[in-house]
Amino acid sequence: MAPMPQAVLEAAAVAKRYGGIAALEDGALSLGRGEVHVLLGSNGSGKSTLCKIIAGAVRPDAGRLRFGERRGFFSDPAAAQAAGIATVYQETGLAPTLSVADNVLLGQEPVGRLGRIRRDRMGARLARIYERVGGLAEGIDPRALVMDLGIDRRQIVEIMKALSHDPEVIIFDESTSSLDRRQVEAFFGLVGGLRDAGASIVFISHRMEEIFAIGDRVSVMRNGSTVAVRDVAATSREELIELMIGGAVGGQPDRPPGRDRGDVLLRVAGLDAGKARGAVLDLHRGEILGLGGLHGQGQSDLLLGIYGGLKRTAGEVAAGEAAVPPGRPDAALTSGIVYVSGDRGRAGALTGRPILENLVIGMLSKERPSLVDLAGMRGRVRPIIERMQLRFGALSDAIETLSGGNQQKVVIGRGLATGPRILLLDDPTKGVDVEAKRDLFGLLRELCDEGLGVILYSSETGELIENADRVLVFNSGRIVGEILHGKLSEYSLNAAALRTEGADA
Amino acid sequence: MPEAAQERARPGAWVRDSPWLLAAVLLVAFAILNAAIQANFFTPFSLALNVTTVLPLMLIAVGQTYVVLGGSIDLSLGAIVSLVNVVAVEIITALGTGPGAIGAGLVAGLATGLACGMLNGLIVSLFRLPPIVTTFATGVIFGGLALIVLPQAGGSLPPAYYLVYAQGFLGLTLPIWLVVLLIGGVWLVGGTRFNRHLLAVGSNRQAAFQTGLPVRRIVFASHAAAGLLAAMAALCILGVAGAGDPLMGQAFTLGSVSAVVLGGTALAGGWGGPAGSILGACILVLINNIIFFANIDFVYQSVVQSAIILAALAAGVFASRRRR
Amino acid sequence: MRVGAVLRDPAAATLIGCVLLLGVGEALAPGFAGFGQVVGQFGVAAILAIVAAGQGIVILAGREGIDLSVGSTMSLAALVAGNIMGGENAGLLPALVAALVVGGAVGLFNGLGATVLRIPPLVMTLGTAGVVTGLLVVLTQGRPSGAAAPALGAFVSRPMLLGLPGVLIAWALLAMLVETGLRRTRFGLNLYAVGSNDHAARLAGVRVATTRVLAYAACGALAGLAGFFLLGYTGAVFVGAGEQYILPSVIAVVLGGTSLAGGRGSYLGSAAGAVFLTILTAFLTTLSIAPAERQIIFGAILIGFMLVYSRE
Known about the structure:
The complex is a heterotrimer. By secondary structure, chain A is α/β, with parallel strands linked by helices. Chain A is built from 17 helices and 20 strands. In chain A, helix 12 (355-367) packs parallel to helix 14 (404-416) and helix 13 crosses helix 14 (404-416). The two termini of chain A are 40 Å apart. Chain B is mainly alpha-helical. In chain B, helix 4 (77-95) runs parallel beside helix 6. Mean pLDDT of chain B is 87; it is low at 1-11. Chain C is mostly helical. Chain C contains 14 helices and two strands; from the N terminus they run H-H-H-H-H-H-H-E-E-H-H-H-H-H-H-H. In chain C, strands 1-2 form a two-stranded antiparallel ribbon. Chain C is globular and about 55 Å long. Chain C starts with a helix and ends with a helix. Classes of the chains: A alpha/beta, B mainly alpha, C mainly alpha. Chains in contact: A-B, A-C, B-C. The interface between B and C is large, with 44 and 43 residues.
């Protein structure tokens, strides 16, 4: 893999750790002038971290960067932008109360006398950007407020904002994940045009079709390292998937086959919530039901819709015989359902509060005692702490003194302490170290043997293969396939997840 | 521009995109009500008097709006009014009441207000302390300073000061000209880059920072502007009162917040504008008028007025919330 | 605990400040820290501390929680209580209940506005303060009204037990009750959870809106109680009786280390803050510092304290 002689940007040996977890160990990227370079890798392989470091948004622990004649990393996003590197992130960095036009040209408004914005010149610049973006920006009113736009159009506005700086290098971080097929085609047209105009493009995608549609070269990342670079014309899907998952395409690891299906614990009929559309599923006693597919295809919304954390727009949910009312997490908890998010910071940890309080808050909601016997509670959470192998100083320490993995154990322990019959896990091991993951899934298996039913969404395919009894694969909010135990493999899951054709007819 | 961009995405969007609309409707309604119970409401004399009454609140409310748009709030504006009021009076009195003394007093007053606003901006933007408590605390300090400068209402201004203020130029009184200037100024600022960046900061501070906007400087500038506008309001109040009062500003802090909320500006920042606050200030003065002329028993005036204001505030919050 | 750790705890720093003030005051004006003097100070502090308890609860609940109507709520509760008592001891208990109910009702109104209608608490409670003040004008016709029962006057000023007036004992009991309520009841733990991370609390089954509404109601009831005791000092009620407690109640809570962002803090901290403010006032009065200068010192201390303890 000789670096291209006229590489415009080169990053090598880039490393970044968050706490004890290595997000990036040996990241590398050699971006040729005027090429579309795809970064491929499973969720958590380090693609986004590498891009953020190149764009100056994250400070690396080690490594080298060269951009043109300039050496060294950028100190902040503005510096990278000024040098000619623009990044389009997934999460939007837009001001919701401003119009599309104001967002696109924010910070570079043409100014006339008295510091007033020259509307005419602004319109002209905007028209140029609209022209450049072409069909992709179709139907987006420059006067519309960003908060009135759907997520797809916000993404397009982000793209326009990045292009407004006339960048030399553009990084698209999964920019197509929220776009529909027509928009994706327009986007490819735009990328092709940019390349022909001499820009160099880094493109992160999980969709195999897209790689072959517009990629020139592809760098494959695995576990925080860049492991291979290939010419797109000289590779195949199979080779890329093998590179992504490392070595040969293996089958399911050796473990007992899915147990006999017990009674139905949870029945979901035609559920619409957020992105999830028309979900139908049964969860059986003792089963771990996996949800697979690309990240953000409606899996989380389905779980939240069942639990009541998200508005249910259609459909019924029943736990055993009893209907689960919509929009009432407290009622779901009472009927034996527990939801645990992997997004600890936003949806899990009660920051600033002691570990003990974090553990018992669910029990309190379910049992509703007026007075709290903390000593008794301490005794009751003890077995859970032991089973989860939680490592902590004292139960009175604030939760943020724990490592990420142990914080997550606390959030899961909070749910388990309520004695649930149904556990909804929403990517529960995000940012959790290997050891904690092993502890967690060991415990889950034991609990399932005792009669618990689990729905597990994981952005890591490996986790589903190792732990799920069957997997429902999601695409664009719908369940598009079911892979049964015995058929579960990196290959079958990746292939199903990357399949966009016929998914949403 | 592409054809699709020529059309509004949503019919009637301008209704929802105009935060001041509710205030405008309320203003018309209250004006009609006022005219119904006060026979001479629409006479030039009465209108000019109302403009003089509303001007100080308008100025302060516009300043408060800029602060709120950027995601902050200033609870010291009333105290700044008090401090500027007494500083100007003391300086004019000390310098001997000539035109030079009046000029020096005006300059000193404006400088005092600006300095107070800059202090607020410095603490809020540089040290990132919560603005509600910070500006409340600085307000306590400014109020204390005002009491030291002039412990009791008093001091007297040369008649030239309030005669000029009340006199007309080209057929209109000075306060009317000042309102025209204020509206012109608000319009000018509304088209600037600063205004756009201020809204961006209040809307999504992180995004504004990532875009490379000087977030701290913008927040600082909004507080400084509010201090300066509060100083102007204090000088206008002197033009009517003719004497200093260290407690003069007290009611204006809450009045300005009320005017801002009434005008449809979101307290969370990033949405709204000073035009709505100008209307909001007018509404508050009209409510006062109506209560006064409605022959309501004195003891009931306060509760009726507060209830109307609370209801109007709730409506204002609703108007701005549809956008958030 | 190490000295550094103690100083980093705002509540502890505030308590140390109290002791220092007493020491310096005693050195400058012998008798300042005498038993009778200090008991008197604490009696004054008790009323502020009771208001601060409610203010602290609302601030703990997060989402820019604040109650600027506590002053007028105090006055209204005192007015109702004073008229029920009419100077007779027999009316004491009904008056107390009425004060709590009136205060709680005002708080409930605030809570519903702030939570159900989602009006920013600052705006909502200011609006309520205006309406309640207007109501007071109507009810009192602008004249002092109502009369405290003699027993209430004695309760707040005469020694009752161990040389301490009843109001101090009541405050001590209340402090234990509030602190226990925060740490040992479901409502208290829910309050911390909601203030710390309301999204996570909701997903853990906590009824977030109910908890916040109850917080405002509790704040109102505590303000009502404070108004009841205030009546013991003032004898009769005038419209602005409670005004002077609004801002000090917020300062006391902040000095006590309660985060304005919600979810962190304790009642003992707020109580220490109330005592500190009261002693500081007495101290500055002893040094014959005029009210205006006192005001400046208050503001400067508040900002200085925040610079050290509440940097975001």
